[in-house]
Amino acid sequence: MVLDNLVQKIREQVQERYAQSNQSGAWQELDKNFHAVLQEVFAKMELVTREEFDRQTQRLGEARLKLQALEKQVKLLEEQIVK
Questions:
Q1: Which CA distances in Å does 50 have to 6, 53, 54?
Q2: CA-based nearest residue to 42, from 80, 83, 77, 7
Q3: In a 3-state reduction of DSSP, which class is residue 83?
Q4: Residue 26: what pLDDT?
Q5: Between residues 70 and 24, which one has the greater pLDDT?
Q6: Is there a smaller number of Cβ atoms within 10 Å at the N or the C end of the chain?
């Protein structure tokens, strides 16, 4: 969704520049493959959406808290063994 919006914005800017340079016919030919090429380039970049980044950040924070709790438990068990 975010990438689609980005692609659309780029397409609009390119189209506007072609229109300003009186080459609108060339724009029609270019537009036939423009969207597909941009999607392919972005797919190769392996980009993630902001929503996915935020979800993964939250999961990482949760995992960090669990790890800290487990480290405390291990430390307590080690202390019990030593006594």
A1: 13, 5, 6
A2: 7
A3: coil
A4: 67
A5: 70
A6: C
Closest CA to 18 of 30, 5, 35, 9: 30
- How far the first Cα of the chain sits from its last, in Å, is 59
Check: CB of residue 34 under 8 Å from CB of residue 11.
yes
Q: What are the residue boundaries of the structural domains of the chain, listed by start?
A: 1-47, 48-83
Beta strand residue intervals within the chain, DSSP E? none
Tell which wins on pLDDT, 74 or 31: 74
The whole-angstrom separation of Cα 52 and Cα 39 is: 18
